[in-house]
Structure formats: C-alpha cells, structure tokens
Design goal:
The structure is a single chain. This protein has three helices and nine strands, in the order H-E-E-E-E-H-E-E-H-E-E-E. The protein is elongated. It has a domain of 82 residues. The strands form four sheets. The chain has a three-stranded antiparallel beta sheet, covered by helices on one side. A two-stranded antiparallel sheet has the order 1-9. About 13% of the residues have low confidence. It is an alpha+beta fold.
C-alpha cells in the first residue's frame, strides 16, 4: 500500500470514528408518522395547578389535571396542615383560563377562630406532552 493510500485510509477511518463518536450519549426519538388506527393532532396532558395562598399557615390548594379537564366547577378543601379548613370554588370558566395559561384569583370561605379568608392565585399550567419531544416544540 502506498503512503498516499495509507494516508487516505487513515483519514477515512478517523472521519468514521469521529462521526460515530458524535452519536455516543445522544438520545434519538423515532416516531410513527403513519398509523392504521387513524391520525390526528397529538394530545397533551395538563399538569396539576398549585395555588399560591395569601397569608398562608399550612393550607394547600391544588387543582388536579383531571379537574382541569373536567369542564365543571371545582370545590377544593384547602386545609392542608392547618388546624382549620377553608373551601374555595374555582369555576369552569376559571379552569379554562388556567388551562390556557392565564391567571385567576379565588377567595376562600371564612375559617379559623377569627373567621379569616385567603386569596388563592392559580397561574396557567404548562401541558406535558403525550410523547417526549427533543426540542420541546413538537416533532
């Protein structure tokens, strides 16, 4: 083998190794673009919406993903670790706003020995993709 042939072979092998090493540690996503079961837009699963509670002392307000998708008013008991309870109603219209990324405010019922209330702020949730996306923006 001539010196020139050896040099070309070495460069070719080096290039192959470089290309192959680029794939180490990569995650590759493969999707099925066709399906015998029909096609349509991909679905997203909404995440839970955690409320931020004013003057909080142990209360917890969480709207589940199922409640966000339910389409009806939701009544939450926000007692959490507090020694008393409050309830808060989030309307179907407010749920649509939260699911769409908006922010809503709701006032709790009175509770505790001093009959105080809390304002709960729910901010829009980011949907979790039904399938992983390497770029975060779809396939």
């Amino acid at each position: 083998m001539s010196k020139e042939s050896q040099s070309l072979a070495s460069r070719r092998d080096f290039a192959k190794l470089g290309l192959l090493s680029g794939f180490i540690g990569m995650t590759v996503y493969i999707t099925d673009c066709g399906s015998s079961k029909g096609s349509g837009p991909s679905t997203s699963t909404p995440a839970n919406a955690a409320g931020v509670i004013s003057a909080n002392h142990g209360h917890v307000a969480t709207i589940t993903a199922a409640q966000l998708s339910g389409g009806t008013d939701v009544t939450l008991d926000i007692q959490g670790t507090a020694d008393h309870t409050h309830r808060v109603v989030v309307t179907a219209a407010q749920l649509v706003t939260i699911k769409g990324g908006g922010q809503v405010f709701a006032t709790s019922t009175a509770g505790g020995t001093d009959s105080h209330t809390h304002t709960i702020t729910f901010s829009g949730v980011t949907a979790s993709p039904a399938s992983p996306s390497p770029s975060g923006g779809g396939w």
